[in-house]
Amino acid sequence: MRIRAATDADRDAAWNIFHEIIAAGDTYAFDPQMSREEALAYWFRADTLTFVAEDDRESIGEADSFLRTATPSPTGEMKKRVIVGTYILRPNQAGGGSHLANAAFMVAPDAQGSGVGREMAEHCLDQARGMGFRAMQFNFVVSTNAPAIHLWEQLGFKIVGTLPGAFHHPEKGYVDVYVMYRSLLDD
Fold first, then answer.
1. pLDDT at 64 over 60
2. Contact in structure between 112 and 120 (CB atoms under 8 Å)
């Protein structure tokens, strides 16, 4: 897998992933009916660094809606580079809060559980440190998103606040949301 800065050519793949994740309505507080234009305006904002995770697939024949390009491998067989995840990195706040980073991550449903999220998270933490951020804060982690919470805790994030009933889950009703934080200076 390769993680790189997103380009305009990645917008369709980013939208495909974004749309599938928000349509489920169970992990992000975006309107599940959000338009492509609104989503991409948010994900590719001027104050935001956007990254994609690419994976090499063995066969051109695989059905995959996240296809970006097909390229020959060193052995001559065709491989396609598939965008399997995307993340954004930006200041959490302006002015006096701009030393805190904020990020959001989305992994294609067919790639979830394969380590894509962890690789993007580790890449993001390195990027944030390199940019001089002192800490990273996630403002709205839905309490029922157990895989994300588990990953963030493994990477040193702590729950520093709970917003009771702040998210309306489509199946579980009103559930808590966590604010999660970790220093980037203690590594």
1. no
2. no
Yes or no: say if 47 and 55 are a contact pair by the CB < 8 Å rule: no
Per-residue pLDDT tens for 126-138? Answer: 999 999 999 999 9
Average pLDDT, the chain: 89
In this structure, which amino acid lies at residue 60? I
Domains and CATH numbers, the chain: 2-136 (3.40.630.30)
Phi, psi at 62, each rounded to 5°:
-65, 135
Judge whether residue 60 has pLDDT over 90.
no
- Burial code (b: 16+ CB inside 10 Å, e: under 16) for 21-59 equals bbeebbbbebeeebeeeebbeebbeeebbbbbbbbebee
Per the listing, tokens 């974004």 go with 18
Query: For the whole model, what pTM was predicted?
Result: 0.86
